[in-house]
């Protein structure tokens, strides 16, 4: 299993901050289709951290499909037990689910953060997006840390917007991202 290296320098953290604020894809367009585009871009250049940040930024907002079964009032989701820890499976589209053993399950959609909330805190160690097709494997701890940081950045900007931001202090892309017109 290939684990992505997500250690970042302070300069890369600042670039991530800027990338989150200037991502020009509206939150409601962060879909499985958009996630597929970002997975393809990331897989073409796995050493490019900006593409990894873009992928995780989309993964933060996009709903993914997950397999589940229901027996009475009880629900369960299949996971993959690995020596390194249990892996949660998620898919961008049902067509990306190629494993015959998963065809017996129903599928529903949720964000990764909502899916992870269904499990005990330390139960899941990795998330695999599109197993057997794209096989993007991310350490859950790093992904959730990224999601928390991104949410904090957006919340901070929202708080500043309520207080009022001088448009002259914003670069043009950030200004337009938050609905301004010049």
Describe the protein's architecture and organization:
Residues 1-5 have low confidence and may be disordered. With 182 residues, the protein is an alpha+beta fold. Helices cover 41% and strands 19% of the residues. It is elongated, with a radius of gyration of 18 Å. It has 6 helices and 7 strands. The strands form 2 sheets. It has a 4-stranded mixed sheet with strand order 3-4-6-7. Strands 2-1-5 form a 3-stranded antiparallel sheet. A hairpin with a 2-residue loop joins β3 and β4 (85-90). α2 (32-44) packs antiparallel against α3 (49-61).
Which tags fit this structure?
182 residues; alpha+beta; four-stranded mixed β-sheet; 6 helices; 7 strands; 41% helix; elongated; disordered N terminus
Secondary structure class reads alpha+beta
Residues in helices, as a percent range: 40-55%
**What is the subunit organization of this protein?**
single chain
Mean pLDDT comes to 83
Strand content: 15-25%
Intertermini distance: 49 Å
Number of helices: 6
Main sheet summary: 4 strands, mixed
Order of helices and strands: HHHEEEEEHEEHH
Q: Strand order, biggest sheet?
A: 3-4-6-7
Number of strands: 7
Q: Which word captures the global form?
A: elongated
Ranges where pLDDT stays below 50 over 5 or more residues in a row are: 1-5
Cα-atom Rg, whole angstroms?
A: 18 Å
Task: Briefly characterize the structure.
The protein has 182 residues and is an alpha+beta fold.
Q: How does the SSE layout of this entry go?
A:
Elements: H1 10-22, H2 32-44, H3 49-61, E1 64-71, E2 74-76, E3 79-82, E4 85-90, E5 106-110, H4 112-116, E6 126-129, E7 136-139, H5 140-163, H6 172-177
Parallel strand pairs: 4-6
Antiparallel strand pairs: 1-2, 1-5, 3-4, 6-7
Helix pairs in contact: 1-3, 2-3
């Amino acid at each position: 299993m290939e684990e992505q290296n997500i250690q970042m320098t302070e300069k890369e953290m600042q670039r991530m901050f800027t990338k989150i604020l200037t991502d020009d894809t509206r939150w409601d367009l962060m879909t499985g289709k958009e996630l597929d585009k970002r997975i393809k871009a990331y897989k073409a250049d796995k050493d490019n951290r900006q593409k990894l940040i873009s992928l995780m930024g989309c993964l933060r907002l996009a709903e993914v499909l997950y397999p589940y079964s229901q027996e009475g009032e009880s629900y369960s989701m299949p996971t993959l037990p690995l020596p390194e820890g249990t892996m949660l499976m998620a898919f961008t589209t049902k067509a990306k689910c190629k494993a015959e053993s998963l065809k017996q399950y129903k599928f529903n959609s949720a964000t990764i953060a909502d899916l992870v909330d269904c499990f005990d805190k330390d139960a899941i160690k990795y998330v695999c997006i599109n197993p057997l097709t794209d096989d993007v494997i991310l350490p859950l701890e790093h992904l959730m840390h990224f999601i928390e940081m991104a949410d904090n950045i957006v919340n901070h900007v929202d708080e500043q917007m309520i207080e009022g931001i001088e448009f002259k202090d914003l670069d043009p892309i950030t200004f337009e991202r938050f609905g301004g017109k010049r």
